[in-house]
Amino acid sequence: MMKILPSSEKKWYLVYTNPRAEKKVAKVYEQIGLEYFLPLQKTIKQWSDRKKWVEEPLFKSYVFIKIDLEKSVYQALSVSGASRLVQFNGKAAEVDEREINIVKKLLGDLSELTILNSSKDYLEHQEGDAIEVIAGPLMGCEGKFLNKKGSQSVLIELKTMQQVVCVSMPLAYIRLLKNPSNKIA
C-alpha cells in the first residue's frame, strides 16, 4: 500500500548560496523563523601578521533548510544571498533526514572524530573496501576505508549532496562489510 504524504509536510532541501553568503543566509532564516542547518567547522586562518580560529561552512555555498516546498520556497529563496534550490532532473532535491543526522553526529563529537581535508590518501587494506561504522557517533553509517599515514580513516559519502567527508576514527569503530561486491567506487 502506497502512503500519500500530505502536501504540507516539511522536508529538508539544499539551498545554493552566493559565495561566502552561507552565514548571512542562515542568519536571515533564523530571523524569519525558517528551520535551517548550517554545519560549521573551526579552522585556523593565516594572515600575514596573525593566525585566528574561524568558523567556516563544512559545505561551501550550501545551507540546509526544512520547509514545506509549496508554501515556503518563495520565502526561502527571496533572502539576499540565497540563489536557488539544488535540483536533480528538474525537481528540488530532497535531503534525507538521515544524512542531516550524519552531519550533525560528525560535528557533534570532535573529540573522537577528526575531519580531514583530503580524500586522496592510500589504504592499508584494499582501496574502496566497503565498511560499516559499528561504534561511536557515526554508528550505522557505511563508507569507504582509507588510511592516512598509519591512522585509520573512513570516507563517508553523502550521496544526496554529492559531497564527500573524510573522518578519522579508531579502527575498532569500523568493520569491513563481508560482501566483496560492496566496493564503493
Structure description:
By secondary structure, the chain is of the alpha+beta class. The chain folds into two domains: 11-95, NusG, N-terminal domain (Alpha-Beta Plaits, 2-Layer Sandwich), CATH 3.30.70; 114-182, SH3 type barrels. 17% of the residues lie in helices and 38% in strands. The protein has helices spanning 22-32, 69-77, 97-108, and strands at residues 11-17, 35-37, 40-46, 51-57, 62-67, 82-85, 87-88, 91-92, 94-95, 114-116, 130-133, 142-148, 151-158, 163-168, 174-176. It has a six-stranded antiparallel sheet, with no helix packed on it. Strands 1, 2, 5, 6 and 9 form a five-stranded antiparallel sheet that branches. Strand 3 (40-46) and strand 4 (51-57) form a beta hairpin. It is globular. 22% of the residues are buried.
Major sheet description: 6 strands, antiparallel
Mean pLDDT across all residues, rounded? 77
CATH class wording of the largest domain: Alpha Beta
Shape: globular
Number of strands: 15
Helix run count: 3
Q: Please indicate the percent range of residues in DSSP E strands (runs of 2 or more).
A: 35-45%
Q: What is the rounded distance between the termini?
A: 34 Å
Return the domain count.
2
Order of helices and strands: EHEEEEHEEEEHEEEEEE
Gyration radius over CA: 18 Å
Could you estimate the helical fraction of the residues in percent? 10-25%
**What structural class should be given to the helix and strand makeup?**
alpha+beta
Oligomer: single chain
Q: What is the CATH architecture descriptor of the largest domain?
A: 2-Layer Sandwich
CATH homologous superfamily descriptor of the largest domain: NusG, N-terminal domain
Order of strands in the sheet with most strands: 10-14-13-12-11-15
Poorly predicted regions? 1-5, 110-124, 180-185
CATH topology of the largest domain: Alpha-Beta Plaits
